[in-house]
Amino acid sequence: MGRASVVRRVAAITLVSIGATVTLLAVTLVIGAYREDAGLNARSVRTTAEVLSVTFDRTLVRYQTPDGADHIPPDGVGYPAGLQAGQLVEVEYDAAKPDLVKVAGRGAYLTLMPAGTLVLFLWLIIGPGLWWLRRRYGTLFRRDHPQSLSPATS
């Protein structure tokens, strides 16, 4: 097997590995979001929260639980699209874990579009790359073993 065929084979395996890994991560993200929502919905309490800050990685809110304690979840609120600082918003939080909070009426289904789009565009890039490698250089994943000729026995 020549050096060029080894490089092509490694390139193909790398592309498929990256695609499979990112696809697995996206699926895990969606499953995790649904599991977290199921746990939160089982013990959810609704209240009004004030949006304190909106940044790229999280949106902080403040709300009060029935015992009078103020909560500002350090991880922010789930599904914060469209929120602005100073806004009052209806939220649902887990009665057992008050720092687990999401915007009321929103759920894990909102993770399907970004995760699905990521996977779709990733494979729209990887697929043609693999097709081009295969079309230009032939077989990618099978090793080329020279067939050994055994002496004929009589």
Automatic annotation (TrEMBL):
The lineage of its organism: Bacteria, Bacillati, Actinomycetota, Actinomycetes, Pseudonocardiales. The chain crosses the membrane at residues 12-34, 108-133. It comes from Kibdelosporangium phytohabitans. This is DUF3592 domain-containing protein. It comes from the Bacteria. Keywords: Membrane, Transmembrane, Transmembrane helix.
